[in-house]
Every structure is written in structure tokens, then in C-alpha cells.
Specification:
Helix content of chain A: 25-40%
Shape of chain A: elongated
Structural class of chain A: alpha+beta
Oligomer: heterodimer
Order of helices and strands of chain A: HEHEEEEEEH
Distance between the termini of chain B: 45 Å
Mean pLDDT of chain B: 87
Order of helices and strands of chain B: HHHHHHHHHHHHEHHHHEEEEEEEEEEH
Low-confidence stretches of chain B: none
Number of domains of chain A: 2
Largest sheet of chain A: 5 strands, mixed, barrel
CATH architecture of the largest domain in chain A: Beta Barrel
Shape of chain B: flat
Mean pLDDT of chain A: 81
Radius of gyration of chain A: 23 Å
Distance between the termini of chain A: 74 Å
Low-confidence stretches of chain A: none
Number of strands of chain A: 7
Structural class of chain B: alpha+beta
CATH class of the largest domain in chain A: Mainly Beta
Largest interface: A-B, 44 and 47 residues
Helix content of chain B: 55-70%
Radius of gyration of chain B: 26 Å
Strand content of chain A: 25-35%
Largest sheet of chain B: 6 strands, antiparallel
Chain lengths: 140, 623
């Protein structure tokens, strides 16, 4: 009924349309799987259920809480309201210090305990991750 | 004194900007031989004034003039001269002044080099460029003036963040900005060409150089930032999919696509509208890059402390520019002369189209990954970050067809080619790359499922790009860039697959075993430098045959008091030995991270090759 050209064009447009849908689907699926949520120790206390997914916890490293042995670094993240014990083996960034801001990425064991796989710290001494600032503001 | 000079010259620049914007519509209808002398002199005055204000700021930094607030908050008398100078653009105010400086100088260069083009086109480009300059001038003068006076004058400044006191990072911002700002000329001129109805061969030929220049600077700028992150942040990688990095990568994808499109436009008079859309997008992405980095909106470990209110200005400005350009596009789009000639599916044109599609896909992935967290925070108040697996999962599968197309595409003819051109030779190379990848992966011992096709595709591209050097048909600069890209992909893959990492907490004298190597923490000593003290460790890494010593440092800067760690890296052609250590607590333990990074140096070399191809293309044409 239609010419060859029209048919060809229709196929072309349809294939673009479907590949677009496929791409959007892939993107959002991948987003869902790889998004890492950021929480403060207080928010973790109030979680209704523990996730098995990776999360980030931000706050300050509690004074006198860093404990080091051959393979591990243990410390406590606090937002001055609630605390979370972090267990970590691996390398720490430059500005990982007691009383300074820190972000730990890892898996929750329970509401008080995180096994971290990565520790992040900020670049400059004035800088505090916005999340930490907020968490501190909320807890004050 | 310097503050006044800087301020006044900026105001004069503002005035000339307004004058040019008012005069250009009047001049538009007169058909003078050249852009009239008056406008040219106004542009010269403007550039001169901006240069003067920039020099004033540099001098204020050199002589540590603490009556200037920017100098006070970002400098210190004990800083080495080199970092005093680079401190000029190491902060928000100064870096914007640098943006402005590059904007006006580029405009001046444009005015001088475009003399043989139509009057209307030139004046319109000037007009749009001046709007951008005006926006930046207003932004600088009213929200982030680098020449704010302080009284009483403090005796000492608060210092530059030591992490920025580094040679690569000193030149990284200017280079990157040259790339970003180059896209503004592309933006202005594409709008001008659209209005004056001259989106054609001549325009393509003229704008191609600008596209190339921005692309080269952007590539090198990204490279420098990446090298810096590699040795200064101590993460031991070269790319982290951090929002701040993504923001520079997006215009790069766009520029790469634009460059290929412009080539088609020049040779075959096709894709007019697409070239214009890409030009507008590239600049919007560069601007939003500045906005996102500078506003502190981005949830990034990289972001430096910032004032979010400034972001609002850039956001509004960006919004106006984009709306304006979209409006112009739809209004004048029918002016584009479409002398469409028939083109077949198997042709170079299609190959470029495919390249563009892939670039746009990569761009969208990066864009979504970067913007989604901001979006979700606004909507849901959830704070999230999007990790590297997101990007890898989406980009890697599409990389495979992309690489294969890239191998075949450049060898196709214009207009029409035969499918059976994908001939025996290429088939042979393909089989060869299957064998090589198979043997390689077997020896390394990793799962085939995902890596095998990826390795096959990249080795195929690598072989084809090498073979192409023997073919006369294509030009040398393209071959070099494409070869550089294949080398890049291959090095990244090998690097990713073979990298090894070990971290531990060690005391002086401790010894650890890692693979077949022994890591020994031999000694620790304290050095005094001009503005920091350093703790220099000595590690001995030895295996059966040889041993190397790595001496990473931890530096304690006094102004401002900050600790940074300097990795020690021993590079060879095959691999990098990377070692960084950190103070944990004063109980004798140091956090040590040792990494073996194969082919690291080839990643840098390949990016230099990619850019070199671009440079060669410019030099050859003009020489």
C-alpha cells in the first residue's frame, strides 16, 4: 500500500523509538542499582529496616575514637546526637583525623555498626561535605 | 591602589561592552567594508582593560597586597612565588576574572582573524559574544569582585589550600578555561551564522579551527586535572566519575561530536541544523560546568567551600542565554539552505552520524549520573551519590560497537561505498584480535564473558589504526588522534584488569608480603621546607630480581594548617609503582597504600597523542 520509501522510514523511526525506550530503561535500572544513599548516624538509628545495599554515612570522627591495628582502622562517626562504629581495612585519605569530617561508604551490620569499604574526606580544612553540615545542623 | 586600578578598568570594560551591544544593531545594516574602526577599537580597549585588571590582581598576589580581600583569603607571604601567581586563579573570584580575560582575548582574536567573512556575520558574533562578556562582567563586579578592599589591612593572609599548591594544578584551570571559553565563540558564531543565513561551507571552514582549539585545550585541561588527581589525592586512579570531573567530560563529548559534524558540513554541506544545535549545547554545558562547580550545588568530594547565592546568578544568566538561543534557533532555522544531496547508508557520512549518536549517548549517561542526585535531592530530599558502576555498566557495553564502528568508519568513502569493502583484510585483523585477546585473558585469568568482546573490539581498533598509517587516503592528524584513542582505550582496559592494590597499617621497620613482593618500611625522617614540614618515609619494595625505593611524603603546611600526602610514583613503560602513606594517630602506625598500575604512562601519552592530532591539523592548514 505504501511505497518502499515510506516503509523504510517507518522502520527507521520505530527502531529509533524502541532503542530510545530500551536505553531509558537501562539507564534507570542501572541508576536504581548503583545509587548510594547518604545518611547521618541519627537517620540510621531511625531506619525502619536495614538495607543490604551500600550506603554512605557522614559525620565527624569522634575524638579519641580512632583505633588502629595492623590491618584495620576502627573509629566512631558521630553527629553529636548518635554514633556509629566503623570498621575498615584499607587506605584512608589525607585529612582523616579525629574531630574532622568524614564520609564512610560501606555496608551496615546493624544500627550501630558499619563495615566500610571506602573512606572519603574533604579537600580543604574549611570544607565540610554539605551532608555533614546539614546533619550537624539538624542535630544541634 | 591596585584595587582601584582593577576596579576602574573593569568598569571601563563594562562600559565598552554596553557601547558595543548598543552600536552593533545600528552597524548591522550598513555595509561597511570592515567591522567599523570604532567597534574594533572598543573591543581592543575592553581587552586591554581586562588584561590590566588581571595583571593588577597578579601583582597584588605577588607583592602580597593584603588590602585586597581575595589576596588576603587566598595567599600568604611565605608561599613560593610560583604559587602566589597561580593563586590568582586558584580561587573563585580570580578564576572568573580569568574566564573573562579569555573571553575578551578570544573575541579580539576572532575579530582579527575573520576579516574576509561577511560583515553581518562578524557583527552578530561580536554582539552575542559581548552579551556573554557583559554577563560575566556584571557577575564579577556585583557578586564576586576580586578587588574588594579590606580595612584595616591585615598583616598576613590566610593562605592557599596546600592541595592546590602543585604545578599541574597551577596550569590546569587556565588550560581548561581556554577550552571552555573557546566554546563561547562557537556558540556566538553559530547563532550569528544562523541569523545571517550563512550556515555553510565557509562558516564550517572558519569555525573548525575554533572547535579544534577548544577541543585541544579541553583535552589537555582534563588530562592535567586527571594527572593531578592521580598523584595528589592519593586515590591512585585517574578518573573517579566525580561530578566535577564529569562536568568537564560532557563538553568534551559534545565538542568531539561537533568536530566530526563540522567536517561533514564542510565537505558535503549536510547536518546544518545539527551543527548549530551541537554548538549551542556545547557552550551550555561549559557554562553549566562552571555553574555547577562554582555554586557548591554538586555533591562532590571535590567541591571547595562556596557561596551558593552566586550560583543563582549564573543559573539565571545561563537560562537567559539558552532561552535566547533556542528562540533564535526556531525563528531562523528555516533560513538554512538545505541543498540536500543523496547519500547512501554505507558512507562516511553515516559513520560520522554513528559517531555522533554514540557521543550523545555517552553524554546523556554522564549527564544523568551527574544531575540525578541534584534532582532527587530537590524532589525527595534524599541525598545520594551515583557510583562508578553506574557509568561502567552503561558505557562499557556500548563501547564495543562504538570501537568497531570507529575502526571501520574512517576508511569508508564519501557519499557511497560498498558493504563488501569490509573486506578480507579487516576480517583477518578481526580474527587476529580475537586470538590475541583470548590468549591475553587466559594468561591473566579473568572471566571472558564481559572482557573478551571488549578486548577484541579495542585490539581490533588498535590494529586497524596502526594499519591505517600505511593508507594514503586519510590525513595524518586524524590517524594520530584515532590511534591515540585506541591506545587510550587499550591502556585503560589493561590498567583496569591488571591493577593490584595493597593497603595496610605499618610501623617503621615493619615488613609485609604482597604477591611476590616484600614491602619494607625502612625509615622516616623530617625535612623542613619554606612553608611546610615534611615527613619523608622510605619504603623498599623488592622481589626476587630487583628492588626499588619509594619515598612518599606527608606534608604539614603551616598556612593554612593542613596535611597533604604526596605519593611517590616510579613509572616505567610497563607499569607504575605507586605508594602513598598517611598519618593515622600518634601511636606509630601509618596507613600505607601500595599500588601497581600497569600501562599508566600510556594513558597520559595517548591523551597527548589525541590532542597532538588536533594541533597538527591546525598547524598543517595554516602552514
Amino acid at each position: 500500500m505504501y511505497g518502499k520509501k515510506v516503509k523504510l522510514r517507518a522502520i527507521f523511526i520505530l527502531s529509533i523509538f524502541f532503542s530510545l525506550i530500551l536505553i531509558v530503561f537501562l539507564v534507570f535500572k542501572s541508576l536504581e542499582e548503583n545509587v548510594v544513599y547518604f545518611k547521618s548516624p541519627t537517620e540510621i538509628k531511625n531506619l525502619t529496616e536495614l538495607t543490604s545495599k551500600k550506603i554512605r554515612v557522614g559525620g565527624m570522627v569522634k575524638e579519641k575514637s580512632i583505633n588502629v591495628n595492623q590491618s584495620e582502622v576502627n573509629f566512631v562517626i558521630t553527629d553529636f546526637k548518635n554514633e556509629l562504629i566503623v570498621n575498615y581495612s584499607g587506605s584512608v585519605p589525607n585529612l582523616f583525623e579525629e574531630g574532622k569530617g568524614v564520609v564512610a561508604e560501606g555496608f551496615l551490620k546493624d544500627r550501630n555498626f558499619l563495615t566500610a569499604v571506602k573512606i572519603l574526606a574533604k579537600h580543604d580544612e574549611n570544607y565540610m561535605p554539605p551532608e555533614v553540615k546539614e546533619a550537624l545542623k539538624e542535630s544541634n | 591602589m591596585l584595587n582601584q586600578i582593577g576596579n576602574y578598568s573593569l568598569y571601563i570594560a563594562l562600559l565598552s561592552s554596553i557601547l558595543i551591544i548598543i552600536q552593533s544593531p545600528i552597524l548591522l545594516n550598513r555595509n561597511n567594508i570592515n567591522v567599523s574602526g570604532r567597534i574594533f577599537s572598543l573591543i581592543s580597549i575592553q581587552s586591554l582593560m581586562i588584561i590590566i585588571s588581571f595583571i593588577a590582581l597578579i601583582i597584588a598576589f605577588i607583592i602580597s597586597d593584603f588590602s585586597n580581600e581575595t589576596v588576603y583569603t587566598n595567599s600568604h607571604t611565605s608561599k613560593p612565588l610560583f604559587y602566589k601567581i597561580s593563586g590568582t586563579w586558584g580561587n573563585h573570584e580570580g578564576s572568573l576574572l580569568l574566564w573573562l580575560l579569555v573571553l575578551s582575548i578570544f573575541l579580539l582574536i576572532f575579530t582579527i582573524t575573520s576579516k574576509n567573512l561577511s560583515n553581518k556575520y562578524r557583527i552578530l558574533t561580536l554582539f552575542f559574544q559581548e552579551i556573554i562578556i557583559l554577563g560575566f562582567l556584571l557577575f564579577i563586579l556585583f557578586t564576586s569582585n576580586p578587588f574588594m578592599s579590606l580595612f584595616p589591612i591585615p598583616n598576613e593572609g590566610t593562605g592557599l589550600n596546600p592541595i592546590l599548591q602543585d604545578p599541574a594544578l597551577a596550569i590546569h584551570p587556565p588550560i581548561l578555561y581556554l577550552g571552555y571559553v573557546g566554546t563561547s565563540i562557537i556558540f556566538s558564531s553559530s547563532l550569528a551564522a544562523l541569523i545571517s543565513g550563512s550556515v555553510n561551507k565557509t562558516w564550517a571552514k572558519h569555525i573548525k579551527n575554533w572547535v579544534l582549539v577548544s577541543w585541544i585545550f579541553l583535552s589537555i585541561g582534563i588530562l592535567l586535572g586527571s594527572i593531578w588527581a592521580y598523584y595528589e589525592l592519593g586515590w591512585g586512579g585517574f578518573w573517579f566519575w566525580d561530578p566535577v570531573e564529569n562536568v568537564s567530560l560532557m563538553p568534551w563529548f559534545c565538542l568531539t561530536a561537533l568536530f566530526h559534524t563540522i567536517l561533514i558540513l564542510e565537505k558535503r554541506e549536510m547536518f546544518h541544523s545539527w551543527a548549530v544545535i551541537l554548538s549551542i549545547t556545547t557552550f551550555s554545558l561549559s557554562m553549566s560546568g562552571t555553574f555547577l562547580v562554582r555554586s557548591g550545588i554538586l555533591n562532590s568530594i571535590h567541591t571547595f567551600a562556596n557561596d551558593p547565592s552566586r550560583g543563582v546568578f549564573i543559573l539565571c544568566f545561563l537560562f537567559i542565554l539558552i532561552t535566547l538561543s533556542i528562540f533564535i534557533y526556531f525563528f531562523y532555522q528555516n533560513k538554512i539552505k538545505n541543498n540536500f544531496t543523496k547519500t547512501y547508508i554505507v558512507s562516511k557520512e553515516t559513520a560520522v552520524l554513528v559517531n555522533n549518536l554514540f557521543m550523545m549517548f555517552f553524554l546523556s549517561v554522564v549527564l544523568i549520573g551527574t544531575v540525578y542526585p541534584i534532582f532527587l535531592e530537590v524532589v525527595n530530599n534524599d541525598k545520594i551519590s551515583v557510583g562508578p558502576p553506574f557509568y561502567h555498566k552503561l558505557i562499557v557495553p556500548f563501547l564495543i560497537p562504538f570501537l568497531i564502528f570507529m575502526a571501520i568508519g574512517p576508511n569508508l568513502n564519501w557519499i557511497k561505498d560498498k558493504i563488501n569493502k569490509i573486506n578480507l583484510q579487516q576480517l583477518l585483523f578481526f580474527i587476529l584480535s580475537i586470538i590475541i585477546s583470548f590468549i591475553f585473558l587466559k594468561r591473566v585469568g579473568i572471566s571472558y564473558l564481559f572482557s573478551l568482546p571488549l578486548f577484541i573490539a579495542s585490539i581490533f581498533l588498535f590494529l586497524i589504526t596502526i594499519k591505517d598509517f600505511s593508507v594514503k587516503k586519510t590525513n595524518l592528524s586524524q590517524k594520530i588522534s584515532h590511534f591515540g584513542f585506541s591506545l587510550f582505550i587499550l591502556s585503560v582496559l589493561v590498567n583496569g584488569v591488571l591493577a593490584k592494590e595493597y593497603s595496610s597499617n605499618m610501623k617503621v621497620g615493619d615488613e609485609r608480603k604482597f604477591l611476590n613482593k616484600t614491602i619494607k618500611f625502612e625509615s622516616l625522617k623530617v625535612n623542613e621546607s619554606k612553608n611546610y614540614q615534611s615527613l619523608e618515609a622510605n619504603f623498599k619494595i623488592s622481589d626476587k630480581n630487583n628492588s626499588i625505593n619509594l619515598k612518599p611524603e606527608v606534608r604539614v603546611y603551616d598556612q593554612p594548617q593542613t596535611i597533604t600526602s604526596e605519593a611517590d610514583i616510579k613509572s616505567t613503560l610497563y607499569s607504575d609503582n605507586f605508594l602513598v602513606f598517611n598519618i593515622l594517630k600518634n601511636d606509630g602506625f601509618y596507613n600505607v597504600r601500595y599500588q601497581i598500575k600497569p600501562f599508566m604512562i600510556w594513558i597520559w601519552i595517548s591523551i597527548i597523542l589525541i590532542s597532538f592530532g588536533g594541533i597538527l591539523s591546525i598547524v598543517k592548514k595554516n602552514g
